[in-house]
Amino acid sequence: MATDSFSGWLVVGLGNPEDEYGGTRHNAGFDLIDLLARRWDAREWKNRFHGRFSQAEPARIDGPVLLLKPTTYMNLSGRAVQGAMAFYRILPARVLVAHDDMDLPLGAFRLKLGGGSAGHRGVESIAAAVGADFLRLRIGIGRPERAGAVDHVLSRFAAAEREEMDRSLAVASDLVETALREGPQAAMNAFHRRRKPEEPPPNTD
User: Fold this and answer.
1) Burial per residue of 25-39, b for 16 or more beta-carbon CB atoms within 10 angstroms, e otherwise
2) I need a labelling partner for 17 at 20 to 30 A (CA). Which of 50, 99, 118, 123 fits?
3) Cα(first)–Cα(last) distance of the chain, in Å?
4) Which residues contact 82 (CB under 8 A, 6 or more apart)?
């Protein structure tokens, strides 16, 4: 076991591990982790810490980045995160958790430090296991017009929605890189501003 605090990052994506849930809205966190793994040419995935685990050494980011996709049920995600944090002696401030969020419109995303779970079972489990002071990347999947919440999060995207989500995840990946390289506040300043609508031109009458 490591003897000093870990100098890199742990980036976690939340989802359901069963094949039948691949590509569903609830697996947006898994999708982001897979994209980062490809972008960073991560090592082969292994079964560790009650999850799928890999490691990468991205250019321009100090220290290694550990990638984790818990394979527990969503409401037990804290077991996987706690195991990895304990083994590597990772502080909560060096943990970023990506997860789906119905309170954000499809294609939107927000980075925040700490706070409540907004009812997300995976976030609740992690906070209960390691405390709430970790970074959360909320990935918008929108609210259903008619379907119930459970049916909505376990549904797949329509073709146009999938294209929008893929574009959003690519930009969210840039945000993660900025957060790990320059700090969370720099990423929030740069990327949250991008998502805001343009202000109307000043009134010259």
Assistant:
1) bbbbbbbbbbbbbee
2) 118
3) 69
4) 126, 129, 130
9-194: CATH topology is: Rossmann fold (3.40.50)
Give percent above pLDDT 70 in the chain. Answer: 91
- Cβ atoms 114, 180 nearer than 8 A: no
Predicted structure pTM score: 0.89
Strand partners, 113: 135
| Mean of the per-residue pLDDT values of the chain | 90
Q: Is 99 a catalytic residue?
A: no
Residue 138's pLDDT band (cuts 50, 70, 90): very high
Structure tokens at 48: 């560790």
Neighbouring residues of 117: CB distance < 8 A, sequence distance ≥ 6: 123, 124, 127
12: CB partners within 8 A, 6+ apart: 29, 33, 67, 68, 69, 70, 77, 80, 81, 95, 96, 97, 98, 126
Task: Report the alpha-carbon distance of residue 120 to residue 126 in Å, rounded.
Answer: 10
Q: Kindly state the helix (H) or strand (E) to which residue 70 belongs, with its residue range.
A: strand 65-70
Annotated catalytic residue within 26, 50, 120, 152? 26
pLDDT single digits (tens) 44-73: 999 999 999 999 999 889 899 999 999 998
Sequence-distant (6+) residues with CB within 8 A of 123 are: 14, 77, 97, 99, 117, 136
180-199 burial, b at 16+ Cβ within 10 Å, e below that, comes to beeebeebbeebeeebeeee
